[in-house]
Amino acid sequence: xxxxxxxxxxxxxxxxxxxxxxxxxxxxxxxxxxxxxxxxxxxxxxxxxxxxxxxxxxxxxxxxxxxxxxxxxxxxxxxxxxxxxxxxxxxxxxxxxxxxxxxxxxxxxxxxxxxxxxxxxxxxxxxxxxxxxxxxxxxxxxxxxxxxxxxxxxxxxxxxxxxxxxxxxxxxxxxxxxxxxxxxxxxxxxxxxxxxxxxxxxxxx
Length: 205
Description:
Elements: E1 2-3, H1 10-22, E2 25-30, E3 34-38, E4 46-51, H2 56-67, E5 71-75, E6 81-87, H3 100-130, H4 156-175, H5 179-203
Antiparallel strand pairs: 1-3, 2-3, 4-6, 5-6
Helix pairs in contact: 3-5
């Protein structure tokens, strides 16, 4: 079974995964969606860290460290960021983090990731503005975005066929750039939320 959800708070995500396990849905993988297998209801204990690794060996050493402490690595790759663990040894610690600072640090790393994504789009947006590729007049004169010769002199079905055919291309030419500031704003918002959660977790010591 697959489920599509999005979280910006690791604690809430862990709580949801534990609730899914209690209903008999156990996490087996996480990429673009959560992949569960059905089994007996289980009082599971999932924890999520956020780390990326420069080498495969560093990633394997990281996984081994936690597995030796009773935590099975369920999902995550060396470059995925989010790393999902499930407690398999009840004699071990109930958390993968040794203290509040290490638990809060995952939110700091997450915030830095969102900021880096926003930073990738800012130069591109600036280039489009500086080169005049963004046509502001399209907002007041959208007809300028249509290149079909004689389009506005056509009548009836000829006009509508030509108009409907070219409209998606016209919108892309005139307003495709809007997606850039949207992405920047969204990523900055996520970065702010992660930074805020970082501070809140530290204060909860």
